[in-house]
Amino acid sequence: MGEVSIYPNLFNLIAGTKYGIVIESASSVNGNNCYGFGYSDSNPYAGGYQRYSGNGGSSWTTESSGNRDLKFITYRKNYTADQDNSSASFTPFDDMYGSIQRLQLFKPSTSNLPQVDFYTFKVGSPAGPLTVQIVSLDGSDNPSGILYTTDIPAASVSASLGAINIYPNLTNLTAGTKYGVLIKSANSVDGDNSYGFGYSDSNPYADGYQKYSNNAGSSWTTESSGNRDLKFTTYKKDYIVDQYDVSASFNTSYDVYGSVQRLQIFTPSTSNLPKVDFYTFKTGSPAGALTVQVVSLDGSDNPTGTLYTTDIPAVSVSGSLGVVSIYPNLSNLTGGTKYGILIKSPNSLNGSNCYGFGYNDSNPYADGFQRYSNNGGSSWTNEASGNRDLKFATFK
């Protein structure tokens, strides 16, 4: 008996409500070739119990007087409040219907936005849902693009001011840049059946403010001299460092352009890889982006498949060695198996305008090493007798 891990990534469950894990194998046809489980009839899990169906789920029975449990573990994401003004005092007001929109600006401290709590309520029976969006902004702090949108049914909104949770799961925001939480209800047509919000005109959130539109977003105005804020909280993911060598001392070199590729091998401890920090820099003005990939490896530690790829524009790379963070959000790796972080820039064409890296030839990372290709990945060699590592960190 062993463990299998699954990754539902569900974000809309109701805390304290019972759910179930169902196991079946409809295509397995006899008891000599089937699947098993671990069980205990001593009620090891007080928050639930096991049920059994012998007819494909048409009916269910409880075994061992409800004391039987199967062996399992569930997990929750670790989110931390990032931008938050919810501890202030707020006044409720309702006018969200038709062409009216409201926009709360905020400034995340990181590039990820897994969850937002927005405080709202309903009056009467709104004809349409409450639409909540995460938007990018132009130089005048007006919406310029929709990054995430969701509709909250009226039935899910309380008649008194309370939090609704949305799960944008955005990973490519720019930390320290303003974004907006936009609310509207275009299909609700009168003020007696609409949505409301909590507001304060005492500037409870210093890094943003609320804007108002009465023409469906064609134009926006600032209220209360920019001191008005809506009640909200944004969250960030808490990542745990898994594999890393960043505490060592590193030299710098640059040659990543054209057909040159470099590959840092690492061995994750778990099956998930939400984030990677890779340390790089640019010299001159590279013509192309820096491509960073997570790759699988063959038995000779050569790349065999691309599991994730992203392009980092030259403008986003510093002129001195520093971190770029990528978010593969992979969940199907095999813990204890080697994978690779591959960097290349095929559209950068000379060594005076290319990308660099931090390296150490004293084997600072024992569970992997760096490899080098000068022919676009057709062949690979080890450097410094396999003792060279690039500066990186992976997270779980």
Describe it for me?
By secondary structure, the chain is mainly β. It contains no helices and 30 strands. The strands form 6 sheets. Strands 5, 6, 8, 11, 13, 16 and 17 form a 7-stranded antiparallel beta sheet that branches. Strands 18, 19, 21, 24, 26, 29 and 30 form a 7-stranded antiparallel beta sheet that branches. A 6-stranded antiparallel beta sheet has the order 10-9-12-7-14-15, with no helix packed on it.
Task: Lay out the secondary structure.
Elements: E1 39-40, E2 51-52, E3 61-62, E4 69-70, E5 79-84, E6 91-96, E7 101-106, E8 116-123, E9 130-137, E10 143-152, E11 162-166, E12 179-184, E13 194-200, E14 210-213, E15 221-222, E16 229-230, E17 232-237, E18 241-244, E19 251-256, E20 261-266, E21 276-283, E22 290-297, E23 303-312, E24 322-326, E25 339-344, E26 354-360, E27 370-373, E28 381-382, E29 389-390, E30 392-395
Antiparallel strand pairs: 1-4, 2-3, 5-17, 6-13, 7-12, 7-14, 8-11, 8-13, 8-17, 9-10, 9-12, 13-16, 14-15, 18-30, 19-26, 20-25, 20-27, 21-24, 21-26, 21-30, 22-23, 22-25, 26-29, 27-28
- Cα shape: flat
Mean pLDDT: 95
Largest sheet: 7 strands, antiparallel
Poorly predicted regions = none
Distance between the termini: 25 Å
What fold name stands as the CATH topology of the largest domain? Jelly Rolls
SSE ordering:
EEEEEEEEEEEEEEEEEEEEEEEEEEEEEE
Radius of gyration: 26 Å
β-strand percent reads 35-45%
Q: In CATH's first tier, which class of the largest domain applies?
A: Mainly Beta
* Structural category: mainly beta
Helix content: under 10%
CATH architectural category of the largest domain: Sandwich
Number of strands: 30
Query: Can you count the helices?
Result: 0
Please give the domain count.
2
